[in-house]
Design a protein that fits this description.
heterodimer, A: 285 residues, alpha/beta, Rossmann fold, six-stranded mixed beta sheet, 11 helices, 10 strands, 40% helix, globular, B: mainly alpha, two-stranded antiparallel sheet, binds adenosine-5'-diphosphate, binds magnesium ion
């Protein structure tokens, strides 16, 4: 499902001394089935932006279209919008509250009056998709490890079968192994369920490998928008926005500037190694 | 949604009222509240209202901001007003079966409403112009003579500081949890009273868990820094009475005396 954001501005606490313009005239279109990485320094407005996409925040001015529907026009049932647009907050494990993981995942389904006989099937599918062991479904969410809690919370949104999945820093606070797993599972969801995905992060390394397209935010504005290679070519601009490009990409960029012919879309150490071996191989030949 | 609560929140500007010594501000607030109860005629109230308006103007806090803080209390004010109007005996103005309005009732109700509005303004001004830290500092110092009779004034002040410090944090947290559950289709405004009470569970449980977690972490952090209560603690900011504090006291006393004079004259 397509998302279209038009001239979106959001001002927090308007009319008080704490007034803060968090979004400044944002224009952005996310196409159906795209995997977009939303990057920006802390405080650049990422979380504020995504909360407009399912109507949790109301714009100070501007419009948001989900599919063909303007979700802030009169008479739109935001509850239905939230069914289509699944939003996973940062540290989603803090919203777990039921006695068992199973019941917690069922919370969203029950809110949408999913028939009792379909619930179990949907929960099991969701648990499998996010890599949560089926045995854990009957344990208390508070007995799980950090990574498992995160998955349980993620499953709570995935089970609702949204057409758009938005995740705010889904790997924050996990160890490198846990991060890798979560990202792979999100990629799986994107591929298997053909979901439109917006992945928020402030880490370039993570996003570069999974997103088809990167949107960089800076001080409430869209600073850059393009495929990873395009965005990473502008390392100075990124630095000014307080962001680092992946280390390997930076090394390869400098080698290319020295006049060597190297691809510009390499973001992992493995790929970089292969490319460099190829390069030295060519030179030796 | 929860950002609309302005009652008792600090509004930072650099006005002279903000810079008054917090101890003086607390004393003055108590003094003004006493005057408000002592005043018993229209002129006294006009004087007190003038003093409040003056204080609000000097504080440079937008009037709208103060008016907004009346909103949650309007209902209570309305009830008080109605009780006075209908339940006071005296010369009858209007009567319908058992309902009656008396001249004295209206008179009392008007005074009560003015008195309540001024009371709210005065106490609000204290918290709007004093940061929570300074407020509790001031309270602790004012209470310190009570240490002699074993009142743990430092501990009380510390508990208040912590409570005040965590109000915005907990509001923010509540807001986040409400949003997270809404994103899963929860709704808190539909259904009868039982359905609504039940809808609070997905908010309250995570909120309590996180409050306990924060309390635990804070206690640990304080112990790691060897916090052990008020004995022998010195402070970074020493409170000192300045000329402006004396001036503020004088102005208030002058108004107070004037109120007393109106009481004997009218
Ligand atoms: N509830 C709020 N009230 C006031 N200001 C806020 C609130 N939430 C966020 N902000 C401010 O808006 C800006 C953008 O915040 P946010 O969208 O959370 O950024 P990010 O997710 O990119 O770190 C920040 O400067 C932040 O301080
Ligand atoms: Mg954020």
């Amino acid at each position: 499902m397509k998302i279209e954001i038009k001239n979106l501005t959001h001002i927090y606490k308007q009319g008080t001394p704490f007034e803060k313009k968090a979004l400044d005239d944002i224009n952005l279109t996310v196409n159906d089935g795209e995997f977009v990485g939303l990057i920006g320094h802390t405080g650049s407005g990422k979380s504020t932006l995504i909360q407009h996409l399912n109507g949790l925040l109301k714009p100070s001015s501007g419009e948001v279209f989900i599919g063909e529907e303007n979700i802030f026009s009169k008479g739109v049932d935001l509850k239905e919008v939230r069914h289509k647009v699944g939003l996973v907050f940062q540290y989603p494990e803090y919203q777990l509250f039921e006695e068992t993981v199973y019941k917690d995942i069922a919370f969203g389904l029950k809110n949408y009056k999913v028939p009792e006989n379909e619930i179990e099937e949907k929960i099991k599918t969701a648990a499998r998709l996010v890599g949560l062991d089926e045995e854990l479904l009957q344990s208390s969410p508070f007995d799980l490890s950090g990574g498992q809690k995160r998955r349980a919370a993620l499953a709570g949104v995935v089970a609702m079968e949204p057409e758009i999945l938005i995740l705010d820093e889904p790997a924050a606070g996990l160890d490198p192994f846990g991060r890798e797993l979560i990202f792979r599972e999100i990629q799986n969801l994107h591929r298997e369920k053909k979901l439109t995905v917006i992945l928020v992060s402030h880490s370039m390394e993570d996003i570069a490998r999974f997103a088809d397209r990167i949107v960089v935010m800076h001080e409430g504005k869209v600073l850059m928008d393009g495929v990873p290679a395009e965005v990473f070519a502008k390392d100075e601009e990124l630095n000014n926005a307080g962001l680092d490009i992946p280390q390997v990409t930076r090394i390869l960029n400098s080698i290319r500037k020295m006049g060597y012919d190297i691809r510009d879309d390499i973001f992992t150490v493995e790929e970089a190694a292969r490319e460099l071996i190829k390069l030295t191989g060519e030179k030796n030949a | 949604m929860l950002n609309d609560i302005t009652l008792g929140q600090f509004y930072p500007t650099n006005s002279i009222i903000h810079r008054l010594d917090p101890r003086m501000k607390i004393v003055l607030t108590v003094l003004l509240v006493v005057f408000l109860f002592v005043a018993d005629n229209l002129y006294g109230f006009i004087l007190m209202a003038a003093l409040c308006v003056l204080a609000v103007i000097v504080s440079t806090i937008p009037v709208g901001y103060i008016l907004r803080s009346f909103k949650p209390l309007l209902f209570i004010i309305f009830i008080t007003c109605m009780l006075n109007v209908f339940l006071t005996d005296g010369r009858i103005l209007w009567q319908y079966s058992f309902l009656k309005i008396t001249y004295e009732g209206v008179y009392l109700a008007v005074f009560m409403v003015i008195r309540l509005f001024l009371l709210i303004t005065v106490t609000n001004l204290l918290t709007l112009t004093t940061s929570p830290i300074l407020l509790t500092d001031g309270l602790e110092r004012l209470m310190s003579p009570l240490k002699k009779i074993k009142v743990p004034s430092h501990e009380i002040a510390m508990m208040m500081t912590i409570a005040l410090r965590f109000i915005p944090t907990l509001l923010e947290e509540t807001d986040k949890i409400i949003k997270a559950q809404s994103a899963r289709g929860a709704s808190f405004t539909s259904g009868n009273i039982f359905a609504r009470a039940k809808a609070m569970i997905p908010i309250l449980i995570p909120l309590f868990i996180s409050a306990f977690r924060r309390a635990d972490e804070l206690a640990l952090a304080m112990e790691c820094r060897c916090y052990s209560g008020g004995e022998n603690r010195t402070r970074m900011r020493r409170l000192k009475i300045q000329a402006r504090d004396i001036v503020a006291l004088l102005i208030s006393v002058v108004f107070g005396v004037a109120v007393l004079v109106t009481n004997t004259l009218f």
